[in-house]
Fold:
Amino acid sequence: MSESGNAGRYARTTNGLIASLVVTVLAVGGFVGLRALTRDDLEVKPDHVDYLAAVDGAQSAGLTVVYPPSLPRGWIADSISFERGDPPAWGIGMLTASGKFAGIRQEDASVTDLLHTYVDDNPTEGDPVEVAGSVARTWQTWSDSGGDHAFSAEVGHDTVLVFGSASVADLRELLDRLTVAKH
Structure:
C-alpha cells in the first residue's frame, strides 16, 4: 500500500499526461515512417473489360452496335455502358497507350445532346472529314477549349460520337476501326 492508502495507484499529473501523449505520437510517427521506407510503391492499373463479350451479347439480342473489332496497340477498354430501353444506348470507354481517354457513344439522340453530355456545352465545330472504311464516310469534327475532341456521324437511326482527351490522330485511328459487323 502506498502512503496515501490507495493500493496500486499512481500520481496523475498534467505533465505525466503530456509525456504519455508525446511518447504515443512518436511511436505512431516511427511506425508510419518505417512503413514508408519498407513498402513498395503501389501501382494502380485500370481494370480491363471484355467489351467484345458485350458486343456479342448486344448483337445476340438483335442490336446493331458500333465498335472496334480490335484496339490500337497499347490501348485498353476500361468501361462499357449499355442502357436498355427503347431505344437502347451503348458506349465504350478506353485508355490510349499514353493514358488518354477515348470514348464511343451510340444512341438515338441529337448530336447536340451528346456533345453537351460528353464534350462541352459549347463545342467549336470544325470541318467534316472523310473516313474510308468506317461505319460512316463523313464525320463532323468538334473541339472544346479544354483540349477535348470529338467526331460525330449518323449511323442508321443513331448518332455515334467518338470523343475524348486523346489526340486527334488517336481518335482518327479509332474511327478507321469502327464496324457494325457481326463479331
Remarks:
- The two ends are 87 Å apart (CA to CA).
